[in-house]
Specification:
The chain is mostly helical. Helix 4 packs across helix 5. The chain is elongated and about 110 Å long. It starts with a helix and ends in a 9-residue tail after the last helix.
Length: 141
Amino acid sequence: MDFIKKNLVFVIVSSSLLLVSAVLIYLTISKYSEMNQALAKVAEGKQKIDELNNQKPAPLKQNLDKLEADKISFQTRLEQIRTVFGKPLKTSLNTFAEQIGITGDELVSKFRTHWDKERKLTDKYQILEDFLKQFDKAKLP
């Protein structure tokens, strides 16, 4: 009893630390069990996903026919859309190409080769300036 009276602060601090440690150990164990349950659910979900991925339903003839019909209708619709929205600046490009004395296709192919050759060396604005330098300045707009 003398020991407790002489070391009252030590006893209080030690007992409070033991109590806090016990609470922390309980919380750690409860969170650990929750984590194990969550990991089990994740493993179960992965197993279900793997099972679903391994299933291979055989394609039906009806579905293949429908897919082929959809493919054809999408291709025709895509062609219709391309005629409307395909290359809106093509006329401007051809006009520019005529002013410098070549066709639009030649201009595009020359620029594409110049772009492929120079794109890793300089920035895109410098590439355009360098490309336009090869033409007569009087013909450029």
